[in-house]
Amino acid sequence: MGLGINRIQETQKKEKEYTPVKIKDKDSRKSFVINFIDAEIYSNDKKWKIKDGYVYDQNDKKLKTNEIKVSNAEAALIKAAAKGDGNGKYLDDDDLVGAVFGILATKELKENNSKYKLVKDETNNNKMPFGDADAMKNGQIYANIENNKGEKQHFEIRLSDYFISKSVYDMLDGLLF
Questions:
Q1: How many CB atoms lie within 10 A of CB 64?
Q2: Phi/psi at 12 (nearest 5 deg)?
Q3: How far apart, in whole angstroms, are the C-alpha atoms of residue 154 and residue 132?
Q4: pLDDT digits (tens, 9 = 90+) for 19-72
Q5: For the purposes of burial, counting CB atoms within 10 Å of the CB of 29, is it exposed (0-12), middle (13-18) or buried (19 or more)?
Q6: Where are the alpha helices (DSSP H) in 7-162?
Q7: What's the number of CA atoms in the CB half-sphere (13 Å) around residue 153?
Q8: pTM for this prediction
């Protein structure tokens, strides 16, 4: 309980519930833990769902260890997403920091010695200065990356309680945001 806007007492808010997920970098074999709110992670042909304290694979099979194995670049992008609010141990709505995610992603890809870098932004009217990456208020965090061979990869995290489809977001843009 506490004072809200205009000194009106708020109703008691439910605390955010987090699921600790061990992220294992298949390339370096290093691992780290990020505490996620309910979310889905997409990376080309892989998908994981984090919900109610568990991690599920792309076939909705519950993983026994809450551990996901990702590439070096994917590990860097997850770290960058969690650092949006300055706290790299939790990934939640506070990490939806817009184009700043591109800055963080560039830094993490470099620090992790990844062979991938952000793709140059060719789609937005106002080009993202650090590449095609964004952490949007609709709950979507994404990055498009490529290596020196021209191999591209799309990476995305959708925070379940915040994500709305792009078509709905576009319709509401200007009305609510």
A1: 8
A2: -65, 130
A3: 10
A4: 999 999 998 999 999 999 999 999 988 999 999 999 999 999 999 999 999 999
A5: exposed
A6: 72-82, 100-111
A7: 23
A8: 0.81
